[in-house]
Amino acid sequence: MKTILLLLLLIMPGLPVAFGQAKKPPTATMSNRVQTANGLLEGGTAASGIHEFKGVPFAAPPVGDLRWREPQPVKNWTGTRQAKKFGPQAMQLPIYSDMNFRSDGVSEDCLYLNVWTPAKSANEKLPVLVYFYGGGFIAGDGSEPRYDGESMAKRGIVAVTVNYRLGVFGFLAHPDLSKESPQKASGNYGFLDQSAALRWVQQNIAAFGGDPKKVTIAGESAGSMSVSAQMASPLSKDLFARAIGESGSMLNTSFGPLPLAEAEKNGAAFATSVGATSLAALRALPAQQLLEAASKPGVPRFAPTIDGYFFTQSPTATFIAGQQARVPLLVGWNSQEMSAPFLLGNEPATPENFRSAVQKLYGARADEVLRLYPATTQQEAEQSATDLAGDRFIAYSTWKWSDMHSQTGGQPVYRYLYERPRPAMNPAMGNEPAAKGASHSAEIEYALGNLATNKVYAWTPDDYKVSETMQSYFANFIKTGNPNGVGLPTWPAAKTGGNAQILRIDVTTRAEPEQNRTRYLLLDQTFAK
Questions:
Q1: Which of 136, 207, 263, 458 could potentially form a cystine with 305 if both were Cys, beta carbons 3.0 to 4.6 Å apart?
Q2: How far, in Å, CA of 159 to CA of 114, rounded?
C-alpha cells in the first residue's frame, strides 16, 4: 500500500499529501533573481533586507539610428543579466552643484531603471512608486542618493527610479524628424522614455512583488512637470493610479511646451549651426560634440513640444477639458522657490527697484501686482521680490495644475506648502548658515526619507521629525490614494474655490485655508496664453 501511494505522489503531485489534507499551493519566493519579460536579472540585497536591482534596461539604447526616435523594445537576453550597479546617466554637463551621482558615467546609452523591493514573494501585490528626477530637463539621474528607494521600500512600497533622455537628445524637434516619424511628430523623446518605463512597470513589476494596478508616479521640478505631462498624454494616462508633484507642472509654465512648428524651426537652426545638412549627418556627430554645441550661450533651450502625438494639445487645454488621467493627486511647492535676484538681477531689493521691475514685467497691470506683492519698505520689497520670483518660476504653474485638477479631474487633490528650511551646513563641508526659507528642491530628502544620504547639512532632530511626517503622508498616499493616517495631522482634500485647504509642512504641520489664491488668480490673468 505504501509503495502504491508513493508512486501516486510521484506521478500526481497535486494529490493530497495525507488523507483529508490538501497540499498548499506553491509560493514564488522573492530572491535576488527575478524573471522579467526580457530575461533573468540578478540583483543584490541591502543590509536592511531590501532587494535592489540597478541598471535594468527598459528600452533599447537610443544610439546610432535610434538617436531621436521613440524608445524601442529591449532585446531579450539569455543567461542571467547582472543588475548590481546603476546604468549610465543621460548625456549632460555638470551644471547643478547639489547633484551627486552613483551611476556608471555619462552616455547616450542611458535608458535604465532601478528597483527596490521589500517583497518576500512575487505574490504580494505591493504598491509601487515610480520617481522621475528633476534638473530642468538638462540634468539629473535615477542614481542620485536623494531619490534612493530603500527608505520607501522599508515602508512596504516597491520603489523605482527612471532615467530619461535630456536636453538636445531628449527634446530636439526638427522638420525632417517629424517627416520620418510614423506619427509625424518630433521632440518629447524624454517624455516618451518615461512612458516606455511605465509600460515596462506594467509588464514586469509583479515579478518584483508589485501591483501594476497600484502605481504612483512622482517627481520634483522637471520630474514634477513630467508627472503632469504623463497625466496629460493619451499615451500614458492609463498606466498609473495616482500622482505626486513636487514644485513644477507643464500648465502655464515658461518651460513650454512649444508649438511643433516653432520647435522644429529651433531644431533646424541648431542643425545648421553644427554644420549638419541631413539627419544622417546630425546622427553621426559624436554625442559629446552635440552636448557642448547645445550648451553654448544663445542656443535656444530644447523644450517639450505640442507634437500631436505625446501631447495632442497643450496640457492646460487637456486639464481644462477634463481629459487628463483621472487619478488622486498630491501636489505642492516650497515657501522660497526662488530668490529676489532672479527678479531684480544685481540690483538691491529696494522698493524703487522692485516697483521698476514689476513695471517692466506687467506694464499697465503693475499696480494690481504691487497691491498683492507690496513693497513699502526694504524688508517688504525683498520678501515680495522673493515671492514673485518663486511664483513666476514654478509656484504659480504648480498651483494651476492643482487648481485645474481639483475642478475637472474628478478625484481628490491634496495640496501642500513646504516651509522647513534646510539647517546649517555640516562644519566638515563648509560654513553656510541655515536657510531663511524652504528653497527649491529642499524637500526631496525629507519626502523620500533620505536625509542621512546627504552629508552636506547638519540635520537636527526637528529635521528628522519633519521627514517622518512628510514621508508618512507620501507613503500613505502611495498605498491608498489618501495621505492621512494614524498620528498625522488631518490633511483635507482641496476644494475648488476660495476656501481651498492647504497643508503647511514644518516642525508643526497643520492645514489651513490657502493664503495666496488672489496672487495666483492675478498671475493666471496675466499669463501669456
A1: 263
A2: 8
Predicted confidence (pLDDT) at residue 292 exceeds the cutoff of 50: yes
Q: Which of 103, 151, 178, 221 is catalytic?
A: 221
Instruction: Identify whether 257 is preceded by a cis peptide bond (ω within 30 of 0).
Output: yes
This prediction's pTM: 0.93
pLDDT for 7 equals: 34
Position 14 pLDDT exceeds 50? no
Q: How far is CA 207 from CA 28, 32, 63, 70, in A?
A: 9, 11, 29, 26
Please give the average per-residue pLDDT across 427-434, as a whole number.
Answer: 82
How far apart (Å, rounded) are the C-alpha atoms in residues 302 and 110?
Answer: 19
Strand partners, 515: none
Cα distances (Å, whole numbers) of residue 9 to 21, 303, 369 = 14, 65, 82
Q: Which amino acid is at 264?
A: E
At 489, give phi and psi (nearest 5°). Answer: -55, 140
Annotated active-site residue 337? The verdict is yes
Residue type, 529: K
The grid coordinates of residue 141 equal 539621474
Whether the Cβ atoms of residue 469 and residue 482 lie closer than 8 Å to each other: no
Amino acid, single-letter form, for residue 520: Y
> Letter for the amino acid at 38?
N
| First vs last C-alpha separation in the chain | 85
Q: How far is the C-alpha of 12 from the C-alpha of 402, rounded, in Å? A: 59
- What is d(CA 110, CA 435) in angstroms, rounded to the nearest whole number? 35
Q: Which residue has the cell 516642525?
A: 507
Contact 436, 336 (CB under 8 A): yes
Point out the least confidently predicted range of 22-26, 194-198, 266-270: 22-26
Asked whether the predicted pLDDT for residue 490 surpasses 90, the reply is yes
User: CA-to-CA distance for 140 and 255, rounded, in angstroms?
Assistant: 17
Cα–Cα distance measured from residue 112 to residue 61, given in angstroms and rounded to the nearest whole number: 9
Tell me what percent of the chain is helix, strand and coil, each rounded to the nearest 5.
35, 15, 45
How many Å is the Cα radius of gyration of the chain?
25
